[in-house]
Structure formats: C-alpha cells, structure tokens
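Researcher: I'd like a candidate sequence for this fold, 288 residues long. If you have to choose between options at a position, lean toward the conservative one.
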C-alpha cells in the first residue's frame, strides 16, 4: 500500500521517565540524520519541541514509549493534523505496530511511501455545572465518571440525545471510543470494536442491580452522564481526575479532531495482534 504523502520534517519524542525510550529516540534521529534528514529528538513534554509542533514545523511525529506515550502524542498532534508513528518501548502495545528493534525496516518503508494512514475518532467531553460548561477535554480512549475515594456505588443518570436511557448504580460509567475498547472498557467487560469505527461505547463499571450491558451508540450521538451522588470524579484518558458535584453533567460526543497513525502492511494487523495481547498480559508476567 503506497502513500502519496512522504514525510520530510520529522520529530522524534520519548517518554521522559523511560531512559531507554529517550535513547531509542536519539538513535532514530541519528539514523535519519545519516539519510540526510535533520530530525530533532527529545522528551514528549519538552516545551520547546511542543511549541514547534504547535506552529506546524513538522509533518510527522515518531513517539517512542508505551501506549500512554502514544495517547499523549495523539492529543498533541491531532489538532494540527500531524500523523504519529509509534515505536513500542512499553509493555502492552495495542496502539503500536512497530516493535522494539524493528524500526529501521519500518523507516525504510516510511521514506519509500510504503504505508497507510489510519484515522481514529476522538471524543469531546464537556463538564457542565448549573447549565454552564466549566471544563472541556478531548479523549482518544475514554471519558470515565466514577466513584471517588469512598467504597460505595454511585448513581449516574444516562441520556442519549436528551432522551433518558437508564440510571446506573455502579462504580462508574465509561464512554469510550473504538480505540478505548481495548483499554479500561475491555477490563470492564465491554466488546472489542474495530479501531476505525466512529462509535461511542457506553459501559457500566461493576453495576449493582442495574443495567449491566454495554451500549454501542452511533457517531453524531451525544451521551450525557449526570451524577446523582456525591463522591464522584471525571477522568479523561486515565489522567488526574476532576471532582464532580452532585447534579453535575458530563456530555460526551464525537470530537472535532482525528488522530492519524502511520500503519504498515494490510489493515488486518489489528486482528493478528489481538490474540497475542489477549493471551499475554505482560504487566503481570504471564507465560506466553
């Protein structure tokens, strides 16, 4: 599969807490330098590099790290329509296709235009209090309303396009993209969706005597989650949670930005890799 887009202005970033990630990003930069390309490298959180990305100086970002690094890279690049190529230095790699040690071959394919671009939907989540939006975020994986520090279920009223759906009594409620269907949503018992789908997946977390099935909503739908309990929080893509007051509402819909990932080979890679990921959770050291 040949692309008409050949990247010329590449930036390589690594996770600042993973020394091997920064070392690998440096090695990739040196490799491209030998090919006559001046490609800066550094931490994904380096403000100077981020400013250059914001000003449109680059046409491709190579992210070296784990899936969390890939998420952060997607957040950074999506508003500027910059594709992301991920090199896996983490454990689980649902978002990656280039494994550790295999990037030289992939870079040759990249520079030859032998790749395709996969587009993944993001969500927009608005925190509404007393009728006013007090916070807005974009999510590649999910927006999660859940209980806070106290170990008791919370009540969450769910509506779809202003029509009442049900009230969940649960530890929380996940609004997920297809990308996020292999993240927290999977752990909560949700279905795995093909990554290119533009649907919203709604999944309760540990429901107690209430609806316990996932609901798949179409693009264009707005799902509203209203907390009817105290002790609730909102987390976007697993980041630091934001406190929610009783009667606060979180509106979730398809976001205005799309994350673009560089992919090699045929689109069936997702299903070929799926079995490997499902049979081995490397974070707990299960055998192959």
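Model: Candidate sequence:
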């Amino acid at each position: 599969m040949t692309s008409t887009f050949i990247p010329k202005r590449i930036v390589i970033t690594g996770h600042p807490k993973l020394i091997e990630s920064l070392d690998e990003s440096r090695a990739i930069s040196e490799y491209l330098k030998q090919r006559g390309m001046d490609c800066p490298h550094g931490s994904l959180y380096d403000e100077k590099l981020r400013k250059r990305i914001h000003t449109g100086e680059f046409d491709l970002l190579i992210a070296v790290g784990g899936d969390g690094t890939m998420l952060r890279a997607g957040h950074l690049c999506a508003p500027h329509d910059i594709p992301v190529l991920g090199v896996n230095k983490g454990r689980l790699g649902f978002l990656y296709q280039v494994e550790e040690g295999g990037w030289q071959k992939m870079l040759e394919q990249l520079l030859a235009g032998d790749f395709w671009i996969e587009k993944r939907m993001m969500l927009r989540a608005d925190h509404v209090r007393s009728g006013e939006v007090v916070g807005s975020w974009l999510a590649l994986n999910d927006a999660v309303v859940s209980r806070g520090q106290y170990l008791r279920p919370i009540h969450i009223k769910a509506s779809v396009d202003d029509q009442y759906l049900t009230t969940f009594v649960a530890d929380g409620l996940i609004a997920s993209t297809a990308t996020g269907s292999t993240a927290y949503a999977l752990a909560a018992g949700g279905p795995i969706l093909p990554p290119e789908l533009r649907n919203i997946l709604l999944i309760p977390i540990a429901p107690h005597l209430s609806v316990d099935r996932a609901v798949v909503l179409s693009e264009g739908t707005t799902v509203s989650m209203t907390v009817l309990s105290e002790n609730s929080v909102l987390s976007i893509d697993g980041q630091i949670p934001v406190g929610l007051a009783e009667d606060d509402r979180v509106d979730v819909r398809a976001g205005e930005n799309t994350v673009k990932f560089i992919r090699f080979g045929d689109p069936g890679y997702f299903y070929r890799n799926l079995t490997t990921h499902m049979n081995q959770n490397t974070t707990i050291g299960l055998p192959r």
